[in-house]
Design goal:
With about 425 residues, the chain is an alpha/beta fold. The protein contains 15 helices and 20 strands. It folds into two domains: about 250 residues, 3-Layer(aba) Sandwich (Rossmann fold), CATH 3.40.50.300; about 150 residues, 3-Layer(aba) Sandwich (Rossmann fold), CATH 3.40.50.720. The protein starts with a strand and ends with a helix.
């Protein structure tokens, strides 16, 4: 049985449709993130699931029971909502605010029991605000007030926790603190949360729902939803998506330079491998506006991942395989189209030596060796053939460059 199931809902504000044919489900104990640009319908979806707005069409079920069938008290015992922030006019204490979470369990003429007080104290400890219990909610910081709202929601002992950008107005330390509190509930509570920060969503969520223009555009695990293509299609920006070195989760790096719609007809082919060309590929393609090709690279190579993320044409070969005749032909076509060739100081073995061996056939192309100094620093694992080819290239006019900036200066004079 799924704690939350939304089936084909439409929501409108007057004549304006805000959600259209939206369906989703949340699994027990998971954190489901809702992402998308402003105006996509994220907050409205939370409001529909908390019965603040009513769908025109479709159904919403909590634990296989129609949302409309719940009384307000029953609803509050099942679902807690944490808003982005609220204005509190009265001078309540933090304990008063948290105790409000027990109202669904306390009769109109009844008082709080010892169990209610115990649950309230536990919620404040979880939210790290027990020391503020007697403080006025209007005399504490924004992060502390938001933690009080989290504690109030926890005091409801909900099965489902809905968060509407509950951390977006907080600094990064308070965001992480609150999200860690929420993640500690995994297994007890199903959490559905709106996120603006895609990197936080990628780290904390089990699955993501991506909204675009009133509809669901993508759904799945963070690595499946947060791709360069989907982010560009939904947010209209170009990004690099990488696996975080510690968590393995995707993290997003915006590409701040504007895309060049009319890229100059200056083509550079980059010979690289083992991560030696990643910074160079980025600088040529993004910062300088060159059209770039690269390869031959195996599909497990770091430089291949960079080329793919940047949309750079790349000739590929299977891992641990020597360059095949077909790959060599593709490599030749790339070099035919290039105005210049840059060779990064990579390890060269029998598997990839064809990348520089082919350059013997291109005496009319300027060649730049990015090798960190006047003396070539390529690691030769071929028994001397690679070193001989490098010296041959130097003898016929190839230039060396210590830094990427030096490569760019030479290219601007040669291309």
């Amino acid at each position: 049985m799924k704690p939350v199931e939304v089936i084909g809902i439409d929501v409108s504000y007057g004549a304006k449709k805000v959600l259209e044919a939206v369906s989703l489900s949340a699994k027990k104990g998971e954190i489901l993130g809702i992402i998308g640009p402003n105006g996509a319908g994220k907050t409205t979806l939370i409001k529909a699931m908390s019965r603040i707005v009513a769908p025109e069409n479709g159904e919403i079920y909590l634990n296989a029971r129609s949302l409309d069938s719940f009384s307000f008290r029953e609803m509050a015992q099942q679902v807690a909502v944490v808003p982005q922030g609220i204005s509190i006019s009265f001078d309540y204490t933090v304990r008063d605010i948290v105790m409000m979470g027990r109202h669904p369990y306390i009769g109109k003429l009844s008082s709080a029991t010892s169990r209610d007080l115990e649950i309230c104290d536990r919620a404040m400890r979880l939210a790290n605000i027990a020391h503020l219990a007697g403080s006025s909610v209007n005399k504490i910081s924004g992060g502390e007030r938001q933690r009080a709202l989290i504690a109030r929601a926890l005091a409801q002992e909900p099965k489902i926790l809905l968060l509407d950008e509950a951390t977006s107005n907080l600094d990064i330390s308070h965001r992480i603190e609150i999200l860690n509190i929420i993640r500690s509930l995994t297994g007890e509570v199903t959490v559905i949360s709106v996120f603006h920060d895609l990197n936080l969503a990628a780290y904390y969520c089990d699955r993501l729902i991506m909204l675009k223009e009133k509809k669901i555009f993508a759904v799945g695990e963070p690595g499946d939803v947060l791709t360069r293509e989907t982010i560009n299609a939904v947010y209209g920006i170009d990004v690099l998506v990488r696996a975080h070195p510690l968590t393995g989760r995707p993290y997003i790096l915006p590409v701040y330079e504007p895309l060049m719609e009319h890229r100059p007809e200056r083509v550079v082919h980059v010979v690289c491998g083992g991560g030696t060309g990643s910074d160079l590929l980025y600088a040529l393609h993004r910062e300088e506006g060159f059209r770039v090709s690269t390869g031959v690279l195996n599909v497990f190579d770091t430089d291949y991942a960079t080329a793919t993320a940047l949309g750079i044409p790349c000739v590929t070969e299977a891992p641990f395989a020597a360059i095949s005749p077909g790959a060599r032909d593709s490599l030749g076509r790339c070099i035919d189209a290039a105005s210049a060739i840059v060779v990064a100081a990579m390890p060269i073995g029998q598997g990839n030596i064809e990348n520089i061996r082919i350059l013997r056939d291109y005496r009319d192309r300027p060649v730049i060796l990015l090798c960190g100094g006047a003396n070539p620093s390529f690691q030769d694992c071929t028994g001397g053939e690679a070193e001989a080819i490098i010296h041959e290239l130097l003898d016929r006019g190839a230039v060396t460059a210590e830094r990427i900036e030096d490569v760019l200066r030479v290219l601007h004079g040669a291309v």
